Amino acid sequence: MRRARRVREAASRGGLLSVNWLLRHPGLLLAASLLLVGVGLLGLAAWAVLRPRVVRVPDELPPGFPAEGFDLRPLEELLERFVDADGRVDYARWHADPEARAALERCLAAFARYSPENAPERFPSGEARLAYWLAAYNACVLQGVLLHWPLESVRDLRTPLDPVAGLGFFARLRFVLGGRAYSLYELEHERIRARFPDPRVHFVLNCGSASCPALRPELPEGPDLEAFLERAAADFVADDRNVRVDRARRRVHLSQIFSWYREDFLAELARRGVPPRDRNLGTYLRRVARGERRALLEEARDYALVFDPYDWSVNARSPAPAGE
Question: Could you give the CA distance from residue 293 to residue 244 in angstroms, rounded to a whole number?
Answer without folding.
Answer: 10
